[in-house]
Amino acid sequence: VFTDPILMCGPIIADYLSVPSVYFLRGFPCGMDSEATQCPNPLSYVPRLFLNNSDSMTFAQRVKNMLVHILEFFYCKPLFTEFEELAYEIFQKKVTATDLLSRGSIWLLRYDFVFEFPRPVMPNMVFIGGINCDQKK
Known about the structure:
By secondary structure, the protein is an alpha/beta fold. 38% of the residues lie in helices and 9% in strands. The protein has four helices and four strands; from the N terminus they run E-H-E-H-H-H-E-E. Helix 1 (9-17) links the parallel strand 1 and strand 2.
């Protein structure tokens, strides 16, 4: 199943049909992509999404990064609750959104590694940035 995993229907269908899933995405909120792939994500070096920090953060930026990470639990959990309930109805067992995402075979990340900060990735995470850029006029 080739899907954007933000809406969890693709991962649910792939798991239900027992077929591999390929995720095509730009960014995932709450660092769930790193958590699902068990990729190291040190908060003191990897800036959180939408903070506009670089990989060379000051102490204050690192503290802000940590606080945002703590807050993500409270504002991200409700986003995926409906999908977790749907997965429970289908599979008849408790499944978290992270569990569903962890079954992804390949993650095609629309990041351009030239413009992004350096961060660890797993072998099944592939940068394919620049595929949706227009020629400059």
